[in-house]
Structures
1.
Amino acid sequence: MLVVDDEPGVRKALQRGLRAEGMDVVTAADGPSGLQLASTGSFDVVLLDIMLPGLSGYRVLERLRKDGVTTPVLLVSAKDGEIDQADGLDLGADGYLVKPFSFVVLVAQVRAVLRRVGPDAGRGTLRLGALEVDRGLRQVHWNGEEVGLSPREFALLDVLVGRAGTVVTKDELLRAVWGEEQAVTRNLVEVYVGYVRRKLDAVGAGALLRTVRGHGYLASDAELDEVITP
């Protein structure tokens, strides 16, 4: 989940609360950063404040929809006027929350949105810099050049880019890519990350996958690093 809000206290509280609900949370503090992160297509839901420095939530949402990003967006505003809500929904928002809102209501809205969009919501294209991961066609391109991956390699890269900006542990990759298969160990994750990294290296994209020692693996680039708030 991506939370875009210019108030540090709000970001921290939402991040703590949503993580307690089992969600991975990335935050951004202004409109341009939120747009850049949301444009990757790697989030299940975006919680987007309307009053943001640099670019309003309305304009961020408008750009996302214009660029074909269909990620569900919940707008957040201190205004509760019908016209404000209608404007947001007309731009393609999936819901509207008025500050101050109940955290319980927020979680319920997030889960309701995820139920509405269904299991095929993530079949679009993920973008990380010049890397594109087409989940529908199961193809990967770097600067327009196709990167040939096996089905298992694609699944692993899909998970990592789908959670760009966050560290994914070996155990999480094991569950997501191999499921309940027997005789699969963490060493196999290292092997397959190595396979994927070498293929990305061959086209100049190897730096996108990083090992975070003692924790797992991270898909990110310099631009993404700059806009993710701690």
Note: The first strand starts at residue 2 and ends at 4.
2.
Amino acid sequence: MATVRDPEATKARIFEAAVAEFSRHGIAGARIDRIAAAAKANKQLIYAYFGNKAELFTQVLGRCMVDLASAVPIDPDDVDGWVDRLLDYHATHPELLRLLFWEGIEYGSAELPDEEARQDHYARKVAEIRDAQERGVITDAIPAGDLLILLISLTNWVSAVPQMRRILTGPGDADQDRLRASVKEAARRLVAR
């Protein structure tokens, strides 16, 4: 009896294996052989479905960012809620920040392969911040793009460097709750009119 192929299931397995591989080893350290083995897929299928290793990384990171944007849309009208949702998302999806760090290590300030799409992605977020500024909901003393990167940095950094978070603020649940409250207070102060 012939085996029925399911290309979408194979692509999904490859994608999940690639997320794990790239978040552990970065672009340069990742190995297509390991991705294929983890996905129980033929190595040639990876190239056929996703292109070379750099193209696969770009697709993986791009989709992870779309997933974040969909799960945690920016909400300048509810900064506390947005910070909570962003912290919770990164706690359950630590791979996204790792992927972004690896991208930064690999590309530095050079243009990204998907630069235009990335600019569009962030332009929509900056427009939401600018709209909130124009409506008087948040401060306009800081340019919208600058304010967005400050809020993202403030919120993401505590997830990106868990070792520093533990050392500086403590390892317990009460310490984490206090830090979350502090991050929210800092975000409120950043956007305050």
Note: The two ends are 69 Å apart (CA to CA).
3.
Amino acid sequence: MDNSGGASSGVGVLDKAALVLSALESGPATLAGLVTATGLARPTAHRLAVALEHHRMVARDMQGRFILGPRLSELAAAAGEDRLLATAGPVLTHLRDVTGESAQLYRRQGDMRICVAAAERLSGLRDTVPVGSTLPMKAGSAAQVLMAWEEPERLHRGLQGARFTATALSGVRRRGWAQSIGEREPGVASVSAPVRGPSNRVVAAVSVSGPIERLTRHPGRMHAQAVIDAALRLSEALRRTG
């Protein structure tokens, strides 16, 4: 029985696998539940569910029922990252134009942070952070933002040897943005704000950076709102489906 409602791709086994995954979207299902939901023959439903389990697209819960597997979350995260990078270009360019300073986007990678996108200042003295640069999580406003909303245990570990304190991160959480003055590099100031994924988890940090002479010793007063606006635009892009 084909229960795909006219949405057949012409590749029968894929259509049936899609039926199984769609059936699990509403929650855990026994084999009997899968048969009812998909209209597939019991041996077919079982064979497909086990094959999808092999590829980690389906898993089992504590009761042995079929559930959606971890591979789907990994693929969704990768799709979200692609969407983030696709949106980052124009958002960072706008942020650079509004502030007159170089703009960057950082993601955490273990104990480091990596610059995944940037819009450089067009003229004058620049604080260049090339795309692909790996920087420590121990200093800088982007590191503060990527650390501030971590789980307590990871937060405690991350603060060991850091140039900022737990009190500073508490202020970052309260304000919703971070600033640093000569923390990562002498003479350089920066302002950063968090980019949040669909689950509200912080997935990246947007920053502007430049010499203290231009940004002053209170860079947040000048640029926090522009950086927050850029972070919100990226967060909204990640929340959009499709």
Note: Strands lie at 58-60, 66-68, 102-109, 112-119, 134-136, 178-181, 188-196, 202-211.
4.
Amino acid sequence: MPEVESDDAVHAPDEDPGTVPRPAVLLALRDSFGVAVAAAAMGLAFGVLVSQSGLPWWWSTIFSAVIFAGSLEFLLLGLVMTLAPLGQIAATAFVVNVRHVFYALSFPLHRVHGVAGKAYSTFALTDEAFALTARPDARNWSRARIVWGQAFVQIFWVGSVTVGALGGTLIPGGLVGLDFAVTALFVVLGIDSFRARRDVPAVIVAVACALTGHLVLGEQMVLAAMGMFTAFLVARYVIAGKVGRRA
């Protein structure tokens, strides 16, 4: 749980002039509420899947609290239930979460001070957290506001997964569509990120990479598509750095 800062950090200095300062924890709750609720919906679905997989309900709480990577948790659940080799699990985790390397390039981790704060903020750097801080106004957020926002997303996630697992026995087995919650959440996050940045070329390239990967490898498209899009992001980052130095 994030620590409370001094008064100048707890009371967010990044509000509009003329407004009454509010504690960073309340600002973080307001900032994260939308994506936290969306994550909670996916968490309920994951909790139900855990309960219907035959595992005890408390495994859902352990999964969500320790791993805390929504899409990866869905994949890991299936891999664990099929007794997949450790190498396959490691490779899947790498491919799914390699995007977080690029999140770190623009995530305001430099504003989070202290070893404990940086460690938790790095651990909780999820898609939702990145979407929150991708907005232009987030550049001036305080340490407490950033970390509390991440904490609220995790609290909503762990709580919803636990509730879903406890109530999963009340839902008929074989219910289809629960795994689509992951896709739905990523679509919402993608739309929100596009509205904040209007990065049309990245969207076009992402779609092109997905279509190319599907045409070449069919259902095994994820690795190829993410590899091509990662190469595009690296190239764009290098080119932008060179242009910035010349300017």
Note: The chain is about 70% helix and 0% strand.
